[in-house]
Specification:
Number of helices: 5
CATH topology: TIM Barrel
Distance between the termini: 34 Å
Largest sheet: 3 strands, parallel
Strand order of the largest sheet: 1-2-3
Order of helices and strands: HEHEHEHH
CATH class: Alpha Beta
Strand content: 5-15%
Helix content: 40-55%
Length: 137
């Protein structure tokens, strides 16, 4: 949070917000992506891209609800297939975080993205209905 706010004060155009549950090297202070999104949004209106810990439409909906304007671009790790299917450890970073836990089957990336987006829109629609009805049931 402190680093993000220093970046905002320095005049950055946007932030990639990734918490401790994402893969790769992290700050030793374990703060989740969802907590960081809330904290940064409460103190800034800078555009945020959520990264780390998002593996389905529920996580996607949560990230958008907490102030993210987007998720990491699908081509951010465009060489990742070569890492995992051909053993080329130089093609891209081989990262996995806590959100690898809910993954229970291997699917083509296209299918995962389509399912994630469909699940997001189903959740967003349900939440919109609750908001319109001003109820929680």
């Amino acid at each position: 949070m402190e680093a993000a706010l220093k970046c905002v004060d320095a005049g950055i155009d946007g932030l990639v917000v990734e918490g401790a549950e994402g893969g790769g090297f992290k700050n030793p202070e374990e703060v989740s992506t969802l907590v960081l999104l809330q904290g940064i949004r409460a103190r800034s209106d800078v555009p945020m891209i959520a990264a780390g810990g998002i593996c389905d439409g529920r996580g996607m909906a949560a990230a958008f609800a907490l102030g993210a304007e987007g998720l990491m671009a699908p081509d951010a790790l465009k060489g990742i297939r070569d890492v995992y299917f051909h053993g080329d450890m130089e093609a891209a970073p081989a990262l996995a975080g806590q959100s690898a836990g809910p993954i229970d089957e291997v699917k083509p990336a296209k299918e995962i993205i389509e399912e994630t987006v469909a699940q997001f829109f189903a959740i967003a629609g349900r939440l919109g209905g609750l908001a319109a009805a001003k109820t929680f049931g």
